[in-house]
Protein 1
Amino acid sequence: MVNDVFDYTKENMQKGIDALKRDFTTLRTGKVTTSIVDNIKVDYYGTMTTLNQVGSVIATDATTISITPWEKALLSPIEKAIQEANIGVNPNNDGSFIKLFFPPMTSDQRQGIVKQAKGMVEHAKVSVRNVRKDGNDKIKKLEKDKAISEDESKKAQEQIQKITDEYIAKIDEAFKIKEADILKV
């Protein structure tokens, strides 16, 4: 019973870390990655479709992303979607593909992105703490239902706190790595 609560707690805290790492991929670092355009949706014959499903998206160098649509008719909807996404660059359409030229980041931009990352980290920590609360509530319910003793309940809650501390440390470590990546020139 108690081990099931621990497993539930670990599994859901890991989901919070996985979500944080996914969020981190949308942040721009020193070199450009195609994940910057992952959340852009294009109107594909009335259906909002992700950019990488309507064309080839590749990073040709450290500051350029090239998008080659599967159909030429999609050039202007892709261009419009990129402009509406407001990712900090204007698309250059040459008639057969679109290029996005990202200027080198200034130190102010880097600091702004670090702030965004800190917000994502705080969100992940809140998520982990909410899972801790759920786990503790389940333990207290087991104690109330007389499935475990008061001592077992206290030990279980201490174990959940240790698990929480472990996952908070993992979040902090992920942030340190991402911050170094963002600030690296």
Note: The chain has a mean pLDDT of 90.
Protein 2
Amino acid sequence: MAGLNKVMIIGNVGTEPEMRYTANGNPVTTFRIATSRNYTTPEGERREETEWFNIVTWARLAENCSQFLQKGRRAYVEGRLRTRSWESQDGQKRFRTEVIANTVLFLDRAQAMPLPEEEPLQEAIEPEDLPFE
């Protein structure tokens, strides 16, 4: 019988994506995603719970994530869970659970900058100029 290992996450990128290359020259990009859940306790107190996920992307997807994702952006990640273990320098056994992504969708657009020959359509508004907070 076959199993199923599938994860779908929508959240905010919590670290700048870091791209490196394996010894074989394959690109790999890692970053973290935070998801939050709001709930009310039985006593009526509102709480927020945040969960962090380590994301690993490979090949062309790794290059795209390195180029287009930034800390704070929203993203949809789909992939599978993998847990690695190793022994640290102090002899302790360490574990890390990661999402090996096969799909990453960028959910918000990067702020578009006008091309040098274009004039902006309106003046930039500073936060101090807004009539409300």
Note: Confidence is low (pLDDT under 50) at residues 118-124.
Protein 3
Amino acid sequence: MPSESEAFTLIFHELFPKLCRFVEGLLNDSGSAPDIAQETLLRLYRFGIERIPPPEIRFWAFRVARNLALNAKARSANRNRLLEALTRLFQPAQANPETELEQADSAALLVRLLQTLPEDQRAALLLREQEEMKYSEIAAVLGVSESKVKVDVFRARQALRTKWHEHHRTTERRKYMN
């Protein structure tokens, strides 16, 4: 009878490629599939393979992989939605190729501006806007008071707005000087 680590090694070698293919098919993204498959098997190891009847291990792993893949897909959609919402907030939408290029530039600028925020403000704002968490939930995640979260979100929004407008004023000045 193989030891627990030997049994896990066998399961890993059998399931890892299958989980990768499954997740890649779900997400249409081969880049994140190995990470999700690895996380699935790590969770299996932590949970303990002895706690799952052997015929059900495969089903357990695929169910967990599916849930992790769907969570990753939702996070990606939330990130995209946040960038689009913030871009729309600062710039009215128009439909032409030049405007689309400007919007892509605006989204890239917004990502750069988010990176300039202090970590606590950035984390609070992303959890609020991207993950749509309540202030109390953000406070629990970050281990701070709810009032600190409210202040951090407010300051992050203010700082983004200020930096956004400063960037555009500077850009306009450069256009007129040339």
Note: The chain has two domains: 4-75, 91-177.
